[in-house]
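Lecture notes, part 5. Sequence design as translation. It can be helpful to think of inverse folding as translation between two languages: the language of shapes and the language of residues. The source text, in structure tokens, appears below.
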């Protein structure tokens, strides 16, 4: 007998309260990886095996530890009983099976395969949005790796699926290698970029989040002046800019014996703060 729709919704609500699926796919990956291991593993091993940035792996592990889904054992980490219960409920959610028994290794591998397809879709979606807000609709693989929290090699694997697609309708990205000058004029500083194709732009235009961004002139302005690709990144840079700029302008004004420079700065800082606030209310 399968899990009823109402039961699935309750399971989803419970699981999402522990790991926000829309934001924490890395935590989910780490948890599933630990579920397949018999002995404790280090964060560096997790980062290497899952091809994550080490900082992202540390952050995910710390959050899983706080939630009680993993536990320390010696110098490494293992999945906790609460974590196994979480994974079992996740399997029930995906397959509709009613069994409460602990998952076998085979079923856990099946779940990892299902989750992996969703994770690829999520990263491709985020890549489309990021390129959509960038100049020339392109971004370097290293920058995208930083924003997504996964290794550049993993970004390449995901985006190349669509960059090298033979079917025209699937060719969302175009891979570009920009050659730079290294030492002694050698071309050893090549940089890899991905750019949206016309197909990619067409798909992007269907996204509700992107249409909201196009209407939000305030947010577009903040992203441009802070050279950012995400709202959270832009706001952090704006806060840092205003926070550091105010004492500096105060010192400069005191040295020159006038307050007009400080007054101008405070006006600019206030204006930028108002624009950032307005960007939150535009739908």
């Amino acid at each position: 007998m399968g899990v009823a729709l109402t039961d699935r919704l309750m399971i989803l609500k419970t699981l999402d309260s522990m790991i926000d699926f829309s934001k924490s796919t890395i935590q989910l990956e780490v948890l599933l990886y630990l579920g397949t291991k018999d002995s404790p593993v280090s964060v560096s091993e997790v980062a290497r095996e899952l091809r994550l940035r080490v900082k992202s792996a540390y952050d995910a592990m710390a959050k899983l530890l706080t939630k009680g889904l993993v536990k320390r054992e010696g110098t490494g980490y293992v999945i906790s009983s609460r974590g196994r219960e979480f994974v079992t409920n996740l399997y029930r959610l995906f397959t509709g099976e009613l069994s409460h028994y602990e998952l076998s290794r085979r079923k856990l591998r099946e779940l990892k395969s299902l989750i992996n397809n969703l994770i690829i879709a999520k990263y491709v979606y985020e890549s489309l949005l990021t390129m959509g807000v960038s100049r020339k609709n392109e971004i370097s693989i290293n920058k995208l790796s930083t924003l997504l929290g996964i290794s550049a090699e993993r970004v390449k694997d995901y985006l190349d699926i669509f960059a090298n697609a033979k079917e025209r309708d699937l060719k969302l990205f175009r891979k570009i290698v920009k050659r730079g000058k290294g030492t002694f004029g050698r071309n050893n500083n090549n940089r890899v970029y991905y750019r949206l194709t016309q197909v990619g732009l067409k798909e992007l235009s269907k996204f509700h989040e992107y249409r909201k961004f196009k209407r939000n002139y305030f947010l577009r302005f903040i992203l441009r002046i802070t050279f950012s690709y995400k709202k959270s990144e832009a706001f952090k840079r704006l806060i840092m800019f205003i926070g550091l700029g105010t004492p500096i302008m105060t010192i400069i004004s005191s040295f020159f014996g006038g307050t007009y420079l400080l007054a101008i700065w405070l006006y600019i800082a206030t204006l930028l703060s108002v624009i950032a606030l307005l960007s939150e209310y535009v739908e």
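The translated text above is only one of many valid answers, since several sequences can fold into similar shapes. Confidence is low (pLDDT under 50) at residues 1-6.
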